[in-house]
Amino acid sequence: MTLLLATEVPTRLVRLAPVDVVIVVFYFALVLAIGWYLKGRSNTGEDFFMAGREMTAWVAGLSFLSANLGALELMGWAGSAYQYGILATHWYWIGAIPAMLFLALVMMPFYYISKTHSVPGYLKLRFGEPSRALSAVSFAFMTVLMSGVNMFAMAKVMQIVLGWDINFSIWVSSLTVAIYVTLGGLRSAIFNEVLQFFLIWAGALLIPILGLYEAGGWTNLKLQIAQRASDQYVHLWSGLGSFSNNPMGINWVGIVFGLGAIISMGYWTTDFLVVQRILAAKDIRSAEMAPIIGAAFKMFVPIIVILPGLIGLAVLPEKLVPESVAAITGGHSYNDVLPLMLARYCGPGLLGLGVTALIAGFMSGMAGNVSAFTTVWTYDIYRPFFNSKASDHHYVNMGRWTTIIGVLISVGTAYLVMQFASIMDYVQALFSFFIAPLFGTVVLGMLWKRATGAGGFWGLLCGTLSSIGMWAWVKVDPSALRYVALSPHAKGLAQDMFQALWSFIVCVIVTVLVSLATKPLPDSALNGLVYGLTEVPSIGDVPFYQKPLFWAGVVTVVFLILNIIFW
Amino acid sequence: MISIWFFIGISLAINGALILAAGIYQLVNPPANPGVVLFNLHAGVWWGAALLVFGLIYCFKFAPGRQS
Lengths: 567, 68
What we know:
By secondary structure, chain A is mainly alpha-helical. Chain A has 24 helices and no strands.
């Protein structure tokens, strides 16, 4: 506590009471205790990198969701809800639910049956070493850089919200993550992610409850938003007929095909950071149920993310502004809306829990990055290219050291971003280049047996290069956005959607053309990897209410009803 | 092996107890300037109590001694 107080600086949004500090310190003690408890259970490669493949559907599913539910995600999308209204919900519904169900019912059987330890590992089995190398190196490089960028951004938030010193935030959080992941491996990361899931709900759910009470209910909230902003801020689909009819500057084609069909599919089905959690499931039924459980909870995350942003739009007396304006005027930016709402409603104790939820969100996101990086480095880069004949014990030790080194690289990146802020934009852009083409490569590999190794590699490479090319084109000439996004009224977010769509199409076309021009792989080499040549093991003789297909249907119905209600 | 749900129960119960205690203290000794909107609802009391009950149920249900 003395250390906490000693590192405070005068500027802050909220001031913690002693009970709040106790709650934050208790969280750090608990995650370290969990890591210490699990240290004796991560002695083999399967234990350290795959959590022993013994997670239940609930643990794997909540961890799968939590790995994505970082603090910056929470604050960023609450800010987007303030800026764009309920349209931000698309990133939680059509931008997640169909992809999660597709992963569960279509892709997971192939990942699970192949017994791969990673997404690049599947590419090795399906397309050969070049595709794995391209995917593994890009993923490992981007993951630690993203972790560093997030670390700096979180430390900055802690400085603004709590007045904490940036160095203090960076080192305390990163060392804590390094300790518990090094001790307990993926199992420790997963346990803490599930804990974080509960803390986030416990810390954030009070804001929409009290906010709706203050606003006078949902109907009154909509009226107040319509008065202060626009009626379009509370409609999901009705303003998406054209780019100029909604605050986001995007149309339904970008949302449905760019976000729903490509970006979210790419992220939720091929980003190893989230898929790794499902691969740790104990059996095929759990592996299929886990993303469905994640999808069911994902549908309700807007309650604690989007709703606070909308309530802020209605009840906050001050007008929030973009970051660039806030930096000049000294006002609060859109991204401050969640901490502002926290400070508005939460007194001593509740404030500590809310701050703990933000810290927990950041740390579990970082643990997710580090554990995924460790697995890909050890199994997909170090073992095939540097030392293929070492013992299992050697690889576990390599994993532990890689965890520490990965955290240190992240810390280094955070300090680099501190010196050169523009790096943050470049790293975030770089990460997006790989998602859409990777989805094209993996899904063609799973569903089209004629796809060859050369086709997979060149499709992935050309798709990625096309994405980089479009990004550079718009960077050099911003007016080029009208060509990339097909409209002069398109705004920044539309670029991401259409860039993903085009790079996916390039990847698919190149993969198909090169595959047709090269020698097909024999069926015997594709057994267990491709639809039509793989016998999916039965989930057992279970009642209908325990079948993944039944619950996927339930989630789909709820998803459709929610979209209609908020149309 | 201790269940993850037990750790979650511990976390919710202790956080709930701390929040409840802080809420009761503010209920008994209301500050002149509460600093939060809707202070009259005393959210810390009922939210802390809810977390405490939820956490204790998890602690009891998933206690190490009760696991097979």
